[in-house]
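Listing S7. Sequence submitted for prediction.
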Amino acid sequence: MADVRSNEAVSRPLLINGEALRLDVQAPRAGGGEKYEPQTVEQAQSILAPQLIAVTEAVETLPPTLRASDRVYVEAKLLPNYLAASYFPTELLAHIGAAPVGSRADVGLYVTKKKSVEAQTRRLIFTVPDGGLSELRRLITEGGRNRTEEQAFTQIRELSEIALPRQSDVLRAREEPEARANSAERRVWEAVLHPHTSRLGEPIPLDEETLEHWFTLIVNEGGEVHRDYVRRVGGLTFTPVSLETETASSLARFNPLRVLRPMPAIRPRPRFGTRSVQRLAAPPTNQPVLSAVSVAVFDGGVDVASRSGSLFSIPTHDLTPEPPAQGELDHGTGVTGAVLYGLVAPGGQAPTPPLPVESYRVLPAPNIPDDLEGYWVLDRIKEAVETNGHRLVNLSLGPTLAVEDDMEPNRWTSELDQLAWEKDVLFIVAAGNDGDQDQKTGLHRVQVPADMANGIAVGACDAPAPEKPWARAPYSSMGPGRHGARVQPLGVQFGGSGNRMFNVVRADGSFLEAAGTSFAAPVTTHALADLVTRLPRVNSSVLRAFTTHFAERPRNHLKLRDEVGYGRQPLSFDALLDCAPNEAHVLYIDEIERGDLLGYQVPVADPATTEVQLQITLAYASPVDPTQPTEYTSASLELVLRPHHRIHTFTPPKGLPDKKQTLDIGGDTARALLAQGWTPSQEPVTKTLTAAKRGASEAQLRDSGKWETVRHYRVTLKPNEVELPRLELSYVARRSGALDNSPTKIPFALLISVIDESRSTDVYDAIRTRFGALRPVQRARTRLRTRGSSTPHWY
């Protein structure tokens, strides 16, 4: 066939309405062999019985000032074999009247018949009345007396340890020489208290009586409670307190306390360099292309006193009563300019802003204890987003706090993830500028709230697309992120480097020079704002899918995943919305209810005559549970690819030593085996998308992305492997670490590229001809400017 590259002048817009290719599919019969039990109930008894004796004796001696009046908080370490939500010890906890209120990350031995390896696990945290603790001691010592008790008793084999909270887990202060030298110095700490209990899987915040116990304890130790800044998030109670460092270890004994840690300050600002003589000309018009969707920038404000012309003719809101600081104004103006205009250069003209942008000045914070400014700033962000209905939010600020593997709940991340889920708001967050810090201590990792599961964390690279070569800027903070968002940053964007600084536009059109993820993030925000104007309808999942799908992979992409995420993000999606002749990009937007199984046709030419590469990106927003750091995302959408509708697995009759065979069900060999009693699989065979192997442990499945809210796969199929391919999508939910059966719907976006890398097939036209339900995206901007269309632009 002739090379199809000669038709480059023809327009081939990205195809939408992929959801119209939905198929009716049946769930395959449940398979799997018998569960391997790493320890017997008797072995668990011998381990846990002495531990329970120690726990009950410790509780008896616990002073009333260090506990809740009617219950105690206890931790139980799961064996890694039982991480899956289906193994949650529901019957055991119910029998003793316990309620799960959270978990912590830990490690343990994952045991199989052949080997034992160290693996991720978690410590369940539950609240239990004193009588329930006594019953747990009796049950473990004596066993069950009836069928119900026996069912609870057998679940103790899932546990390797039961204990009161460890002080090393509760007190999280970095051991720094200056801190030890100034142990009597007062500073602000963040104390996070467990929920009171949980009801139907939902955590209930701590009761007022126990909270007052805590406040009294602080005051008696010479501390101060900042009551105006007490906040409740996802059942947790965040209480800022001022303490002398030397009293922290004593206070960490308070049984309902989850964590006590120094309050982080707001990140420092990048330094600015020489001012440019040449200026940026104002855009042709300040009227945005589309006015139905707006962008918010929370930063140091816009330098309105210095602005000239119409570069920054946007609404500005002073949320802080403090007078502007020039350094904050320069930073805020530069960030806002990048959101409005993207990457611009001295002497050029600014483009027309794609969406309305509003600037919120939140820095410097008012005259409060320095380390409380993060709480104050977050409150302002939350109030403005909830009130004003912005859909895109740029955050080039945040606390100086790097994510950790055993990351305790953080208020910034938890609040913004919850807001993103409830309001379908997309937060684009700078990843942080500590990538050159000590890796052994983890200081180089992405900084809160760039570890959001429902946002986009943007790192920095040293050259803008499409220039080559490019690499992560040395200062750009790295991954991995928290559980549920391990690939962090999601990608990188040009943010400047020592050899090539970022042009930071000022209010008068002149420029400063700087470098930082602070400027990389708004360039991506601008690109996404422009994308909103080019699609008929969007939501946060669509934008996250595009950002990931069209990121430019580096050569050693797996090796560099922690450095650059999925790759370098484009300055604009404009050219990417056009397909080459040998490819087709197809967008699916749909929603799935818990327990559903959805099937979708994958559009390919029929018959396939060359190798086909599929690039698949799935993005969705998930409810989050800040009490469960290892189970942070509550929803998992699982993808299965069945590339050939006639290829099945054949299982021999029982008693035959033959191995399973994979065959075309319509072939002669398959018919012969059927006549001999062989059994075909109910559904066609699957093609592996993840790195996890068949029979992988739950920890390995999590590492391969089972609970990630953004996933990207690439798979190459030979011609004989492809015929009527389909994708299947299922939804598993968890609540408080256990399986959740409540009916919730999860919106998602699926972006698929079908590519003939040999460039010998006219893939696009073949798919357009064969799949009439797919429509080319309408890119006439004038149609999008109206507010009163019957179909909202954001959905």
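Caption to Listing S7: primary sequence and predicted structure tokens for the chain studied. The first helix runs from residue 41 to 60. The mean pLDDT is 90.
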